[in-house]
Amino acid sequence: MRIVMIGAGYVGLVSGACFASMGTEVIVVEKDPCRVAALQAGRIPIYEPGLDRLVADSVRAGRLRFEVALDRALPGADAVFLAVGTPSRRGDGHADLSHVFAAAAELAAALPAPTVLVTKSTVPVGTGRRLAALMREIRPDLDVPVASNPEFLREGSAIEDFMRPDRIVVGTDSVQAEAVLRALYRPLNPAGVTLLCTGLETAELIKYATNAFLAMKITFINEMADLCEQVGADVHELARGMGLDRRIGPKFLHPGPGFGGSCFPKDTQALMRIAQDAHAPARLVETVVSVNEARKAAMAGRILAAFGGTVRRRRIAVLGLTFKPETDDMRDSPAIPIVHRLVELGAEVVAYDPAGMEQARRDLPAEVVYASGAASALAGADGAVLVTEWNEFRALAPDWLRATMRGRVVVDLRNVFDPAAMRAAGLDHHAIGRPAPH
Ligand code: NAD
Question: How far are the Cα atoms of 43, 50, 67, 73, 387 from residue 38, in angstroms, in the given order?
Fold first, then answer.
């Protein structure tokens, strides 16, 4: 089979490379010529573990290539996937569909034959029908079946998630589209993966409902962490006690500085707007959005308190900038409001992230100094703030931290350090939702 993937971002590149590794011939079309040139030269423009090898293997096998020109990629394709970005529309939180419709219009004009159109991007309910109408309008001569096939991969474990998904969702009214998608995913059948077929609207909503539910779980444990701090309970034991209940499960019960990233913030906002427009307001989701925003904004205050009420001229090492480990993605990272506020308050921020510093330079104030490693960020610092739980930070020994820093304050926004060991090393350790050890 042969497919075209429009968009060489986190989703398009990973899905394209994974389909190619399963034997499909894939052409990834990307409008950014620099990105295409890099890919053609064998460089991967994003940080995603294992992606470089997967891409190189499929390119070598002749099953994966990259193009700027859509019309050159289309002949002979069984399906065209849209994997372009759907960020929040500035100002109102609705999903910005300009990339989706621009790509679809370009596709409609260039299609040489009827081809299945699949939306992999996360799009509001009703978008599939609008795309079908657009296709009919621009190309009344072609019958283009439309399907929704939302993607559930997570950055940092994207290949594994794509190859071993909890489920595959296909939303369509078209027998042909369903058959094409079933065939494309057939190599995953031996792994016992469920392919759930639904209507278009349901598939579109499954993606938003899933992300909103996970965001709600995180927000719930964050609120419980705040409560733990007030009543002397330990949020880790609480989460374990809850998570052992199989109706709840242990995942997404890790407290932290509030969820960020390229999906949860924009998808919860978009679902909130979708529900409001449909006159079925999703009050829980609305609350999740506002509680999470308040939490991210409150983190700098927590750091300020740990430093005794002022950070002016204090040298603070910020460890981790990306919204989670194993990615270079800075989109909506909690580090952004934290670092902006610390700089506003007069702190001298020295930041280090294993993969995100290039993107971070665009999002953080110019005053921030970037270190080449954790050791140089911490050397001579009055304190440290751990924002992203990269493994290399987990491995830092309390005694070494104490010896490397000038000061003693460590604000551990991901609870990676053992409070008792930190205290024993003479550090002033501030965790989330955990009582100070006696
Ligand atoms: P991204 O911004 O990393 O990548 C999108 C790419 O599409 C960019 O490289 C852009 O230049 C390209 N593009 C835009 N318009 C184009 C056009 N007309 N022709 C060719 N290329 C075009 O976005 P992403 O993170 O990969 O997300 C894509 C979609 O998948 C979004 O809807 C997102 O919500 C969804 N999603 C993302 C993730 C994730 O972890 N990133 C997970 C699941 C779903």
Answer: 5, 17, 11, 18, 31
Same domain, 137 and 30: yes
Indicate whether 304 belongs to any domain. yes
- Taking only the tens place, the pLDDT of each residue in 129-184 is 999 999 999 999 999 999 999 999 999 999 999 999 999 999 999 999 999 999 99
Q: What is the pTM of this model?
A: 0.96
Domain co-membership, 14 together with 157: yes
- Is 263 assigned a catalytic role? yes
Residue 262 CB–ligand 1 contact under 6 Å: yes
Q: Is the CB of 103 under 6 A from ligand 1?
A: yes
- State whether the beta carbon of 153 lies less than 6 angstroms from ligand 1: yes
Q: Whose CA is nearest to atom 30 of ligand 1?
A: 121
Which segments of 232-373 does DSSP mark as H helices, in order? 235-243, 264-277, 283-306, 335-344, 357-363
Rounded alpha-carbon distances, angstroms, from residue 84 to 14, 98, 405, 435? 13, 10, 44, 45
Max distance between CA atoms of the chain, in angstroms, equals 76
Task: Tell me, yes or no, whether 233 and 316 share the same domain.
Answer: no
Among 390, 401, 399, 400, smallest CA distance to 425 is for 399
Cα separations (Å) of 218 from 253, 254, 260, 272, 303?
6, 7, 11, 17, 21
